[in-house]
Amino acid sequence: MDNATISFELTPDEKTVLALYEIDDKNTLTINHTWLKDCLKENGYGDLCILDEGAATLIEAFKDCDCSSGSVPIAKKVDAEVNLRISRDKMGAYLTILPAQGGEKITLDQIKTLLADKGIRHGFISEAIKSAILKGEASDTLIAAGKPVKNGEDAKFICLLSEIKIRTPQVKENGNIDFRDMGEIVVAKPGQELMRRIPATQGKSSKDIFGEVVNPRLGKDIPFAKGLQGVEQDPNDPNLLRATVTGQPIIVENGVNIEDTMTVKEVNLTTGNIIFDGSVIVNGDVENGMKVHTTGDIHIAGMVESADLKAGGDIVIRGAIIGRGDVRDKKGNFNTETATIYADGSISAKFIENSYLEAQNCIYIQDWVIKSELYALNEIIVGNN
């Protein structure tokens, strides 16, 4: 049997628990921190904070096994502690509660008083506050939040040419794919709506957790680009851009240009056939089997193979026109590989072979003509002389 006793009692202020002990020289009881914690719990003091110094003193006394008696403060009641952190931008208040250990718990009134003392009077999150109080603890929990400002948006530009798309090879009715036909080139007409400008917005102000007004960042009011060609702002709606001429719409930063002349590097399977309401400039060659049909002029810096050219104006070819095979077969029908060139104006080229040319004005060939048919309403001139 252990020759030692330990009992517990509250101090008169009921805040501290004393451990009363008696030990004689025959004691065999050994205690430790866990034993003390269990013993305090059995005596109804399990929620209190154990005092490390008192526990160490009591444990050491039982180790010595000397005859002794006395009392040691072994535990105390600790009230809950509360802390409030405010974010730098004054848009959030964060609550931390260290739970009570046998002492007073945090109440709603205490939280309200704390918020009032800090000057916080806007954006309370009631559910978060109630939950923290109910749990008796919290770790940096958001309990008040200002509503973020809605910053203004910069002006936007919306293209109204919904038909602008990537040109792709067209599928014929029989299911075959025509790799030369890439679809129509988009052409704008005078008066057509091209682009709408959405003006910048001012945004919407808000309040921080102190009730102070927080102003938004204003959107940048960007105008249509300067120097746009072939377009104008609608006189009744300055945020609407309309075409003033017929041509190809080219999207640029903050606007649209209308070009009545289309320029391409060359005409081949990559570009597809060119069907354009305006004039066309080809900086290279027009390859075999391709088409260039325009309502304006056609200017070609290179040569034309077995291609089909039609122009509402003049056709100027700096190089040669070279078709394949005879212009017509034995029945008088056109050979499909013949170069066919038609212009409502005049046609000029360096030299031609196996080609059909027809002009409503004149035809000028710099060098020679071989196995070709030429028709002109006015004159045909071959050679520099």
List its salient traits.
11% helix; 385 residues; six-stranded parallel sheet; mainly beta; 35 strands
Structural summary, described in words:
This protein is mainly beta and 385 residues long. It is 11% helix and 38% strand. The protein has helices at 33-42, 52-64, 108-118, 126-135; strands at residues 4-10, 16-23, 49-50, 68-76, 81-86, 92-98, 138-145, 150-151, 156-159, 170-171, 177-178, 193-198, 203-204, 206-207, 213-214, 231-234, 237-243, 248-252, 255-259, 261-264, 274-276, 279-282, 291-294, 298-300, 308-311, 315-317, 321-322, 339-343, 347-349, 352-353, 355-359, 362-365, 369-370, 373-376, 379-382. The strands form 10 sheets. A 7-stranded parallel beta sheet has the order 20-22-24-26-29-32-35, with no helix packed on it. Strands 21-23-25-28-31-34 form a 6-stranded parallel beta sheet, with no helix packed on it. A hairpin with a 2-residue loop joins strand 16 and strand 17 (237-243). It is rod-shaped, with a radius of gyration of 47 Å. The N and C termini lie far apart (141 Å). Mean pLDDT is 87; it is low at 165-171 and 177-182.
